[in-house]
Amino acid sequence: xxxxxxxxxxxxxxxxxxxxxxxxxxxxxxxxxxxxxxxxxxxxxxxxxxxxxxxxxxxxxxxxxxxxxxxxxxxxxxxxxxxxxxxxxxxxxxxxxxxxxxxxxxxxxxxxxxxxxxxxxxxxxxxxxxxxxxxxxxxxxxxxxxxxxxxxxxxxxxxxxxxxxxxxxxxxxxxxxxxxxxxxxxxxxxxxxxxxxxxxxxxxxxxxxxxxxxxxxxxxxxxxxxxxxxxxxxxxxxxxxxxxxxxxxxxxxxxxxxxxxxxxxxxxxxxxxxxxxxxxxxxxxxxxxxxxxxxxxxxxxxxxxxxxxxxxxxxxxxxxxxxxxxxxxxxxxxxxxxxxxxxxxxxxxxxxxxxxxxxxxxxxxxxxxxxxxxxxxxxxxxxxxxxxxxxxxxxxxxxxxxxxxxxxxxxxxxxxxxxxxxxxxxxxxxxxxxxxxxxxxxxxxxxxxxxxxxxxxxxxxxxxxxxxxxxxxxxxxxxxxxxxxxxxxxxxxxxxxxxxxxxxxxxxxxxxxxxxxxxxxxxxxxxxxxxxxxxxxxxxxxxxxxxxxxxxxxxxxxxxxxxxxxxxxxxxxxxxxxxxxxxxxxxxxxxxxxxxxxxxxxxxx
Length: 605
Prior knowledge:
By secondary structure, the chain is α/β, with parallel strands linked by helices. The chain has three domains: 9-122, Immunoglobulins (Immunoglobulin-like); 132-451 and 563-597, Alkaline Phosphatase, subunit A, CATH 3.40.720; 452-509 and 512-550, no CATH class. Mean pLDDT is 95; it is low at 17-23.
């Protein structure tokens, strides 16, 4: 709750800075969507005007382009106890607003003798040219992650890489800025929401503009890309992830909410079928494909392992809605012998196990030993989605690049990045074999970055033979002494034949808790820091006892490293790819995909 409250306060502070100075007796006013918000013609969105006062001023008025709209508003209020800011609030709300004509729309709010103004822009629709869109998200990726992945998976000869990653052969390269409404540093919910709605939001939030009420389910919503392409173009939608399917990045395809706790994720599971706490406000999306982890959100609370707080059997509801449901790799392979119309696969109770543990250190995978890989899930999704002659939108997430960078488990992060790269290559081969490559916009982009990079190599034998920390530091080689790591790939699958090689990479992050580092692959998933009796995180003596101690530079209550500010690369190929060249805000991923399809929701009005 502390993080959420801080995020909302940060949003409101930013909003109040851009509104006019208010006279001492005039109440504060917040207008959502914010100034500068942009929309497609015919896109659906909610509008909320908050007045921080015990009652509405007598002169309260709201106009849009000079037209009085207050008579159509739903008027509500909440007390100081029901406010995240501790301020009594009056609110006017309009649901499912839409403007079909491109141009600027100016909102003027009069309250207590002061006028507050924001301007929104409805963009011209794009020209189109694509039939399908596939968005590949390397959660937590960056240029440095791509580079390390290229070095390990492709190798280098005399300073030249032996090959490029699959997406690095695409025609367009740009940069994406990832900050949100509330902070310079984003999380996955906020950033993936920008990609899927064309609107910036706040940490933990997806598909909404956060308001100040404590109710996490009343915030103004914005329509998602998936919703638009289904209702306007009749396209199919798919979500493939190695995370829980209701985690931030996959859920951004359809979900609307302000938090990332179990209750919200449980509600996201129901929002797919138009049920739950948002029932009546959110139309069912029913994506034709849902593949990932998160099975515990399907089970009623009476079943062991359930993370739900209710007795709803979501799995039964999905089957009733038309999904063919599978639970392991064998089931996925079997069901694809006769392609279903709708496919849902939940292969782990939580996040799926990472590639390195599923394929190398298999003793770490015990509860769910038969999980499919990202490549297998994506190819199955393509088979299902391609049955729709109107085209499809597919989001594919390599989730554990991020989930392994947080605990500084760099080998596992890179292995999952290699898996995503192989998935992209397999997707391109499938599209070409099925005559769809020329009709499909392909986009690769991380949702945010980490401060990860490589700065040399490590002589493992010398490192392990050293008797103290100083001796271990002499084993770290930089500049000319660095030479090359000794990973090999004799079988040509782009994964190293062995991960415990003699010369590894010296890599790390700018930010970290107190922990130790030995630059060698860990046979078990890393837990670099543990909590002491005072609630602060200290090096875990069981994680890396012979490593070099690294001083922490984060809040002592931080157990892992965090996200960073840096722009992330976007690669694109196919019809509409030229949109993505150059430097952009993260909302332009949405508008670029819409442009490629010629998406114009107003055409359905």
